[in-house]
Write a structure and sequence with these properties.
This protein is an alpha+beta fold and about 300 residues long. The chain has two domains: about 240 residues, Sandwich (Immunoglobulin-like); about 40 residues, no CATH class. The protein has a six-stranded mixed beta barrel with strand order 2-4-3-13-12-14. The chain is globular. The relative contact order is 0.24.
């Protein structure tokens, strides 16, 4: 099977695939073929818009098995190896992502699925985590922004779910050095001999508010905005939520964001359509940063509210 590549020129001129930082996609391409090892085919619609069907009440943001998801159209989204900007991903390890969406007028949620028989939810020396990201423009318009993480003056809104953050939540913050390296030997830890307010000063990243250093989390999804490569900025007000589970060699991840994106961008209002892009990281294949799988632009339609 031949491998489709998107050049830097394609990315910049036609909204192509992203690089370096988190996620971006490419110009719409028909019949994409990629070099994939062990990819599985599943019945789904390809090339159709992802329609967020309206449902009454609370969205099933933590339950991928909820009946509401079964009623939503499942769309196949091709993935390719990111080869626009270094560091490149040499070969794709997964060839497709499946997406479906729901909304209730106050929140939009996407259920994303991809094959991965290795659960990677611990970071360490040469250990990397599984992740998926969604990218949306901050403003509507007939011409989408450059999908290489936007451009100066044309920001994008990125939502990234991480398996490591999901583990932090599922384990109630008990993930640390002892879980990553079970044979580690400690002398004395600050938490063992000092009151919490003093011991916390020794965990510099955590005390400084670095989101990557936290162990007690309320959501496994991070929200950032970006205006091009290397510009991803953590939002001070994190409103996205979600959940992920790996069953039978497949990740099923829900990412949800309020329809009213106050301070970030225009509302994802019923009856509107938005470009949307995706990226997937496989920790077992040492994916991280720009070494990722990317999707081309898709269309997300926010269904009419009944």
């Amino acid at each position: 099977m031949s491998e489709t590549k998107i050049t830097r020129k394609d990315a910049l001129l036609y909204g192509g695939a992203a690089a370096g930082g988190l996620v971006v996609g490419g110009a719409a391409v028909a019949g994409v073929a990629v070099a994939v090892e062990g990819a599985k085919q599943a019945p789904a619609v390809e090339g159709e818009p992802i329609v967020a069907r309206y449902v009454d009440g609370e969205l099933p943001v933590t339950d991928p098995d909820a009946g509401a998801w079964s009623d939503a159209q499942r769309v196949l989204v091709p993935l390719v190896a990111q080869q626009i900007a270094q560091p490149y991903l040499d070969k794709a390890g997964v060839g497709e992502l499946y997406a479906r969406a729901l909304h209730n007028g106050a929140e939009v949620a996407l259920l994303l699925e991809w094959d991965d028989d290795s659960v990677d939810d611990l970071d360490g020396i040469r250990r990397y985590h599984d992740a998926v990201a969604v990218q949306l423009p901050t403003r509507s318009g007939s011409t989408p922004p450059a999908l290489t993480m936007g451009s100066p003056g044309t920001p994008v809104h990125i939502l990234q779910w991480r398996a490591t953050w999901q583990r932090d939540i599922d384990s109630e913050g008990r993930t640390g050095v002892d879980q990553i390296y079970p044979a580690v030997v400690h002398d004395v830890m600050p938490d063992d001999v000092l009151p919490p307010e003093t011991a916390n000063l020794y965990w510099v990243g955590r005390e400084a508010g670095n989101p990557l250093s936290q162990i007690k989390r309320s959501t496994p999804v991070e929200e950032v905005v970006a205006e091009g490569f290397g510009s991803a900025t953590h939002l001070p007000n994190q409103t996205a939520r979600g959940a992920g589970v790996n069953e039978d060699g497949r990740w099923r991840v829900i990412v949800a964001v309020p329809s009213e994106r106050a301070g970030v961008g225009e509302a994802l209002a019923p009856g509107t359509s938005w470009p949307v892009a995706f990226a997937v990281w496989l920790g077992s294949r040492e994916n991280r940063g720009g070494r990722k799988h990317i999707a081309n632009w898709q269309t997300l339609v926010i269904g009419a509210q009944r």
